[in-house]
Structure formats: C-alpha cells, structure tokens
Design a protein that fits this description.
Largest sheet: 6 strands, parallel
Number of strands: 19
Oligomer: single chain
Structural class: alpha/beta
Strand order of the largest sheet: 2-1-3-4-5-6
Shape: globular
Helix content: 25-40%
Amino acid sequence: MPVQTKSMFHLVSINCRFSHSCLALFYVRNALEQHLPGHSLLLSQFTINDPYYPTLLRISRERSKAVFFSVYIWNHAVVHRLIHDLARLRPDLIIILGGPEAQALGELPEQCTLFLGEIEGAPQGFYHDLQQGRLQALYQAEKASCFPSPYKEDDFTGALQHRQLYYESSRGCPFSCSYCLSSGSKGVRHKPVELVKEELTALIAARPMIIKLVDRTFNDQPDRALAIWQFCIEQTKQVRFHFEIAPDRFTAPMFALLSTVPCDQFQFEIGIQSFHTPTLAAVNRTMDLEATCRNIQRLLALDTIHLHVDLILGLPFETEESFRDSFHQVFRLGPHYIQLGLLKVLPDTEIARQAEEFGLMYCSEPPYEVLATRWLDHTQLADLYDFCECVEAFYNNRFFRSLWQYLLQTGEEPFAFFYELLQLCRQYNFFQVSRTHKLMTQILADLLGKRKDGKLLLDLLRYDWLRCGHRSLPEYLTTTTQPELRNRLRESLPQNVEGLFTYQTRVEFLKQASFVELSREAMGFLGLINQENQLDHTGTGLVALLPEQTGGVMKFQRAVSLLESDSNSIQ
C-alpha cells in the first residue's frame, strides 16, 4: 500500500555525496511557504550513488501534488531517469525542473514544467498555476533583488545535520569566462555586509563541518572580503570556511589579516585555468599572472590556509607543450591540492557557440566533457587526461611531500616525472583498482629504486610513510623491523633525554614512537642533522616519529633524530 502523507509538494535533491547539501532546495522551500502558505512540504536529499530503485520508490510513494528537482551536470542522468519513470507511475504528478541543466533534459513527459532562473524572481502566475494544478510548460524568472539565506534553525538539526553548508553572499561573477554559465549573467549582486554577518552568525551557531561560500569570486571587492573575513575570525575557531578567490585581487590589509587566521579555519579555491596567455584571452579570462604567483606564494608561506589550485585541460589554443608549462608553473608554486579539471562545453555558453571555430568535440550528454580540440587530438587529450588523474591521485594528499620537495629543490622537470609514473601506473592497472596509500607507495618504490638517486628517494618514502602515522614500514621498504630497532634502542639509548623522555617514561617512549634508519644524504635533505657526529660509523642515522603531530596545513608525526650513544643529538 502507498504511504499516505500530508505532503503536497515534494522537494527533491540528488547530491554528489551524503555530506553535500543543496542550497536551491531551501530557497524553493521558503518561496513556496511565502507564496502558498498552508501547503505541506517534504524535503528529501538523495545522492547519485544511492540505489536507483529504492530512490524511485521513496519518491513515488509520497502522494504529493508536485515534485521539484534541481538539475545539475552531476545529477542530470539520474533525474532524467526518475522523471520518465515517475511520469508513467504517476500520470497525475506535476514535475517541476529547475537548475542550470534543466533545459538539457531533452524531450520531457507531458506533465513536466521547466522553471528557468531564480525562484525569488518567479512570476506571480507560477504560484497561481501551481495551486490550480495547471502549469504551463515553461516559466522564466527575473533576477532577484534580494536573496536572504534560506535556512531555518530546525534545518541544522534535521535536513542539514552532518552536512556541509552552502551560503552565498553574492550572486554573479566579475569575470566573463566563456566556458562558465555565469558569463551569461552580467554584473555581481552583493548582499550588505551587515546582513552577511547576521546570516553567518546563524550558520556558525549550528557548528557545521564547513561553511562553503559559493560566491564565484569572493574577493572581487577586497574591502568587503576583508570585513567578512575579520568577522569569521572573531566569531569562531571551530568552523572551517571555504572561499573561491581570484588570486590577483589581494591587498596589503588582506594579507595582514590572513596572517592572523588560525590554522585550518580558511581554505581557498583558486582558479588559474592556464598560464598560456592566448588561451586566457580566448576564454575571456583576465588575470595578472605575476601577481597570481606572488600572492599564492605569500599565502603558502603562512602555512595556515589550505590552497586548492585549478587548471583546465582542453581549453582553446592549449597545446600539449603549453599545458605542460602551465603544470610546471603550478607545481613549482607547491599548493596543497592541484585540481586538473577537464573542460566541460556547457550548453548556452559562449564557448559552446564557438565549438566549431575551436574544433571542440565533446560528449553529447552531461557533463559534456571535451574529447578533442583543434590543438589536441583525441589520443593526445586522452593521454593528458590520464596524466591528470595520476597527478591528482599521488599529489593531492600528504603522503609524498618530501618527494615533491626533492623534485622542486633539484629542479627536476615534474611533468616528465609524473609522465614516467603514469606509464608504471598503467602496468599496475592502477586506475581500475582501489588507489590506496600502500599501492601508491609500492609503485613509487618500483619507479624510484631504479634511479641513480634511488637510495635517497627510497629513504624519503620511508620517512613520509611513517610520519603519516603508520607504525611500521611495508615489506617492500623494510630494511630493519620495528622490533629489531626497539631492541637495539633499549640497550643503547640514555636513561634520560631532555624534552623527550625520562628514565620513568623511557619504556613508554619506545612503545609509542616508530623508528627508521636513514642515510646521511636523506637526513641532511630533511634537515634532521647539522653535525657529522649525529651519524653512526655506517653513515646512517636513526629517526623517531612521535605520536604528537606538527602544526601547519599538512599535519605529520613529529620527527626527531637520535644518536643512540649521545643524548645531545636529539633535535
């Protein structure tokens, strides 16, 4: 028997994962409550990974008058399937589709309505027709003059519990990038700063895991950004904030304030897209590249703000050589995360209208990934795509930071290194299996062990493995086992080492720490020795990895060097 509920309107979101939420869902909820008071509303959030059939049943069983879907490139396929099945199951059901990909659903069942634009700007006739159950096929909304935060206090303990919160302090973007849907909407509408502070206060009180500001360019007005950042810092240290920023729009007061931000409170997403100036010109992307690099380096030097830097593969005029150069420049900056995205040729964007001019071949269904360009044939682009997948898997974590630092300090070409790594990944069938830390370390050990500097690099792998929190080395990196090292240290370590252990805590220290033997060269590179007498007669040193972690964005187990016969060697 169908489940009978009081719900009249069912608002459904299909998110990428459970931790995400859908901002549009709550805007629609509030608009319906305002214009059609007295009607019952049900909010349901699913994910694209949920089993399809139970999702369909949960929606079809609700005896709602209408169901609303917000359509995006990531949920397009699921929504398309749902609406066609719902139409057959419930011929009386009104289906309303909004969001940036609603128009791309193709031929729609008869009872479907397209709603284009912002719900706050809906024509009054839309609500009248909805109440009467006689909707038109299409409604076009106007730009909203205001868009207050849609959240209510109950949301934080209900639909939004244990999820990321999304918030917009502005709509629109100061840029007109030809590949972005925002380019079709000119100008930026900013909320008053005092209203932003008031709304953020309510979000902060809910103690979410993170508040993600979805403003396309949060710092397009530096003084405004400064005021909001100052407010966030003063309000809490317990909530993380995510901002999309333009890296060349920083001022001295902004840097002065950011130097006071507690570690991990802010994270910045920085879209560079390309360092190739003809490419940037072709997509209407304006950026001061020198200022961009300089400002990213200053932000990284703070070691308190997580930096996520984006490049896009498949843009016009981007050749294999120019993409290689862009990657080199980003890698040399040393951000915490490098996202190498693939161009999506979205309908109704300027770049989609230029597809023939640029020789763009792309997938016919969302997310419309580029397949070839005038400058990269399909084979080249596919190869570069695999390269990007390899970089993202190995770089975007804290597992191998000493290795990346070595590439930077020695001036080795990073593209060549990762391309060689890619070939080995293919032999390991890496992209078809679980990408574990252990497997990645094994592949790197295989690659690095064949090099002239292999002994040093394998030592860096050992060090990084243990400082990431592992208690012992994998078999392919083990030279001396942890029990053997502990037994040796029981006999040779002093009874007291100031700042490390006393005779009373010595046994506990040996239990809690992990140990690794490293070469003279590795110890020097890692800054763990500064005197020749800190090595034994074999030219190796011993490093202890302690339970406590270091500070900074990338957190590791604290490392100290040990000389078994001399307590003065402790670092």
